[in-house]
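The material for today's practical consists of a large collection of protein records. Getting from the letters to the tokens is the skill we practise here. To make this concrete, we reproduce a full record directly below:
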Amino acid sequence: MDINLRETFLTKISLFQNLSKEDLQYITENSRERLFKENDIIFSEGDPAGAMYVIGYGEISISKGKREIARFLAGSLIGEMAVLDKGNRSATGIALTESLLLELPESFLSRIGSKSKSLLSILETMSGRVRESNNELEENYLNISTVVHDLRNAITSLSYASFIKNTPADNSMIVEWADRILDAKEFMTSIVDDALRLKNRNLSKIDFDNTDIMSVITSTVEIYTALHPDVKDKTVTIDAPENLPDCPYNRRNIVRVLSNLIINACQASDDNAEVTIAVSSDKNSLYIEIIDSGSGIDPRVISQIFDPMFTTKIEGNGLGLHACKSIVEELHKGKLTVESEENKGAIFKISLPLVQSS
């Protein structure tokens, strides 16, 4: 579009309607048109700002991680937050269709600000607060989504109810199945309780046991994951020495970690395959390895495997492994790592310190 058409276009956008003729002319002459094809990236999360954009035509998607948070059409202003508060991009912009954007240089704000430094300062402060609110919302979204993810895994234990329904009343197995259902109920309640504590940053109320961890590993295999559709056709074996040392751990959170890793290992393995849980220790730590016999993890993505929202599954949300790493490393001050070779499976290794750090 020519200069006059560009100026006319800008005057139809509320942000620019009260600018002086001189300022509007400055923007018109110092802006430039950018044509983006479908799926072109306009800016990426974490990049420095430098410019904001007005959409001439087309449709733009704004996403954070793998989650789309907004879409914008012609006449919308995008990318202004990072310019206003002089921060890096907090999201990624992608053209959903061929799109013409008018790129406005950062110097535009400096020019307007020189005439009203107080106004510019207010805008920068407001933008900073909006960014903080967005970050908090994102954290709460991850927290809620992680709870839903773990509850979905735990719910499979309630399948024991179908056994009770179809079993004669005098069968001795009913008591055991009922106990497993009650265990699952307590486990799901604890997940919700922990989420509420995390929301209030109150980690100090999470209790630590200092007892034999083998009971937790065994119950996770036999109760919490046994009826999961991706687990029940696999063989999960435990390889552990006798007389393992005690280590401090939070039972329900370690169950969450083990459940996720066991289910993932079974999903990666062929039907009727074996998944091994190898337990060992040294003078400083206790180690739990979950070893699958799948095809391994693509080396191009293994460095991203614990990132929030990253997933290689069609229906995955990318939160399970991120939550596992947070539980092991932030809550237990341990380490969660992965080793993998293509066509040779993967090993997820949990390291828990034998002495709880203060």
About this structure: Residues 117-155 form the longest helix (39 residues).
